[in-house]
Design brief:
Blueprint (H helix, E strand, L loop, with lengths): L1 E6 L17 E6 L11 E7 L13 H8 L4 E6 L9 H15 L1 H4 L1 E11 L1 H12 L3 H7 L3 H4 L3 E5 L11 H8 L5 H6 L12 E7 L8 H12 L4 E6 L27 H10 L2
Parallel strand pairs: 3-4, 3-5, 5-6, 6-7, 7-8
Antiparallel strand pairs: 1-2, 2-4
Length: about 280
């Protein structure tokens, strides 16, 4: 395994962002190449942990990366800037991380055309921003990058925060707004309204009884994907609440959250990310 921690360097000044104390890191979990085991590049995934844009959850970071690594998918975990870091701070970091992964595809022995972005909860909102704003001209100008360099090939959204409207997770959105008073930005961050023909193929999963991030976040986004005829796969589980991560002993300690049925999302998702 190629295990490295990389400091992600963003030109925050270009976007007018206060960069004091910002130090996003990208950790690689990439298979070592071997003619005996594997003779073609691996697909890869950029993992964005949740945490309400307040912190990056450990349960949705390394355990997830190791799980998918064991299923033949190179994984990269980004610990992005949180806590009142106004949009587009985390988005610039995530797109820069994606660009880094693609630029170093040969070294990590991955396919540069098979890189997914995966997010959990608020991290899924960030993944949704990556999936819908990667072609935004203003964002690209801040990065000094092309659309092709930062485009995610597929998108995976796990119990996602996606809307900023009636069914939002207010804490996540307020952290992105920072000052809390920008109605125009709030509307922009309602991602069901940002889906277009350029949104990548998407995998979603959620629990119907999620009382933290309502299921409507996923349903609204599914409807938008359908409207634009974007291929998608969605799994709605009857119960389990929020923040389940892998739904097994590696990420949950309460027995009622060890859910073998829900845990099937991992296998389904790996299959989705390998289909091209």
């Amino acid at each position: 395994m190629i295990y490295e921690q990389i400091n992600i360097e963003v030109d925050y000044k270009k976007a007018g962002i206060d960069y004091e104390g910002l130090c996003p890191t990208l950790t690689s979990y990439s298979p070592v190449t071997s003619e005996e085991i594997h003779n073609k590049p691996y697909p890869a995934v950029l993992v964005l942990p949740g945490g309400g844009y307040d912190y990056c959850s450990d349960r949705e970071a390394e355990p997830v990366a190791l799980k998918f690594l064991g299923m033949g998918i190179a994984a990269f975990v980004l610990r992005y800037s949180c806590v009142k870091k106004k949009y587009p701070t985390a988005l610039l970091e995530a797109l820069t991380a994606l660009k880094y992964i693609r630029e170093n595809a040969e070294r990590f022995y991955i396919d540069p055309d098979k890189i997914s972005v995966m997010g959990f909860s608020a991290g899924a909102h960030l993944a949704g921003c990556v999936s819908n704003f990667y072609h935004d001209k203003e964002i690209l100008s801040y990065l000094g990058a092309s659309e092709e360099e930062v485009k995610p090939d597929k998108s995976v959204l796990c119990y996602p925060v996606l809307t900023s409207g009636e069914y939002t997770h207010e804490g996540s959105i307020l952290n992105l707004l920072a000052d809390g008073g920008d109605d125009k930005l709030r509307a922009k961050l309602s991602l069901e309204n940002q889906v277009s023909g350029k949104t990548p193929e998407t995998f979603l999963w959620h629990t119907a009884d999620d009382n933290c991030v309502p299921i409507e976040n996923t349903l609204l986004y599914m409807s938008a994907l359908s409207k634009y005829k974007i291929p998608f796969e969605a799994h709605i589980y009857e119960w389990g609440g929020h923040g389940l991560s892998l739904c097994d002993e590696t990420t949950m300690y309460d027995s009622y959250q060890l859910l073998p049925v829900n845990a099937n999302w991992v296998t389904a998702c790996a299959d989705f990310m390998k289909r091209y």
